[in-house]
Amino acid sequence: MGRAQGAMEYVTTYGWTLLIVIVALLVLFKLGVFSNSSLPDTCISSSGFICSKVSLDTSGIMRFEFGQSTGNPITITSIGCSSTGATPGNQSTMSSLLVKNGAFVNLTVQCPMPPSIIGTKFVGTIWITFTQGSISYMDNVGDVTATVSTKAIPPVYVEGIVQSASVKTGSGFSVSFPAAVTQGDTLVAVYSTETTSGGCAVASVTDTLGDSWTSVTSKCEKSGAQGGNTWVNSAMFYTTAVGSATDVVSVGTNGGGTVSPSSGLIAIYEISPPVNSVVAASPGFGTSYPGEGYSTAAQLVYAPNSVVIGGTDEFDASGCCNAGGGYSIYSNSGGSASMYSNSVNSPTGFTVTSNNRNVYGWVDIGAAFEPH
Q: 303-327 in b/e burial notation, b at 16+ Cβ within 10 A?
C-alpha cells in the first residue's frame, strides 16, 4: 500500500510538471519559435570568404556584400544559390570579376524560391565558381538566412533613342534634335568624336525643358595617328526629365580642338521608369593604340534589371565597333559608336570589341543605370 501511494504521489507531482512543459512547447511551436521565420538574418561565412549585409526581395533576388581573404586575388565567373547545402543546379554566368585579397564587392544572386510576401524566411547557401591562378574552383561562400524585406525591383529599360551624327567642323559645334519625353524618365546623352589641332573638346548638354544635366563619365586621349595630332573624345551625361513634352536636346562642344568631319556620334536614350542610381566604369577604360582589332573590358557591379550604356571612339575612317553581351549598337562610319542593353541581369561586366579595323587609338566609356 505504501509503495502504491508513493507511485501515485510521484505521478501526480511530476505529471503536472510534464504536462506544463508539453503545453509550453505547444505554445512556442504555435508562435513559430521553432520555424525558420524566427531565425535572425545571418550569413555564416565559409573559410576564406566574408558574407554580410544580406537583403532579399519578393522575387528571390538576394543582395549581399562579399569579401575574400584567401591570400591571393580570385576571379569570379559565376554565382548560384541553393535552398540546401548542396551545390545549386545551375549558376548565373557573369563577366569575370576580379576580387583582390582583402577587398569587398556587392553581389546579387537569384535564389530558388517562389514569389513571396514580405516577412518570408529563406534558408540556403551561396556558391561561386572562381579561378585563382590557373585553377578553377566551386566553393560555398556561406550559409545564409534572410527575410524578404523589399518588393521586387521592376526593371528599367530604354524606351526610345534618337541619334545624330555630328558633321560640322570647327572649334565648337552644337547638334540639336527633338525628343518626346515623359516626366520623371531618365535621359542619357552619349558623345564621341575625334578632334584635331587644338586638343580635347569639352562636351556639354542643354535642353529646352531646363533640365540639369550631370556628367557620368568622360575621357580624352591623344592618338598615335596623324603624327600624334589627333585626340579621341567620349563623354556621357544624364538628367531626369522635368516635364512631359517634346524636348529639344543640344549636345556639342565648348571650344577645344577642331572636330573631324563626319567623325562623331551623339545618341540620346530615354530610360523608363526612373532610375535609382548610376554606376560608371573607370573613364577611358580602353586607351591605347592596338592596331588591327582589339577587345577591352571594364568591371561594373550593378543591380539586376539595370540598363547598361556605353560609348566608344576609334580613330579610323572606316572603323566601327561591336559590343559583346547582346548589346544593340548605334554607330556611324567615322569610328564612333554607342551601345546599350536592356534589363541586364548579370551583376558585372562591360566589353567592347572592334571589327578588326586598323585602330590607332580609342576611348571607351560605360555606365549602368540601376532601378529603384
A: bbbbbbbbbbbbbbeebbbbbeeeb
Which pTM does this prediction carry? 0.66
Q: By three-state DSSP, how is residue 14 classified?
A: helix
- For 38-150, the fitting CATH number among 3.40.50, 3.90.1570, 1.20.1250, 2.60.40 is 2.60.40
Q: Is 23 helix (H, G, I), strand (E, B) or coil?
A: helix
C-alpha 264/C-alpha 338 separation (Å) is: 11
Cβ proximity of 217 and 254 under 8 Å: no
With 0-12 / 13-18 / 19 or more C-beta atoms within 10 angstroms meaning exposed / middle / buried, residue 337 is buried
| Cell representation of residue 333 | 562610319
E strands in 151-202: 157-164, 173-181, 186-196
**For 156-185, how does the pLDDT look when each residue is reduced to its tens digit (9 = 90+)?**
778 777 666 554 455 555 667 677 788 888
38-47: average pLDDT: 80
Residue with cell 556605353: 310
- C-beta separation of 101 from 133 below 8 A: no
pLDDT for 248 equals 80
How far is it, in rounded angstroms, from Cα 27 to Cα 287? Answer: 67
- Rounded distance, CA 236 to CA 309, Å? 9
In degrees and rounded to multiples of 5, residue 81 shows phi and psi of -140, 135
Nearest CA among 323, 324, 312, 327 for reference residue 359: 312
Contact 319, 298 (CB under 8 A): no
For residue 270, how many other CB atoms are within 10 A of its CB?
20
Query: Where are the domain boundaries for CATH 2.60.40 in the chain?
Result: 38-150
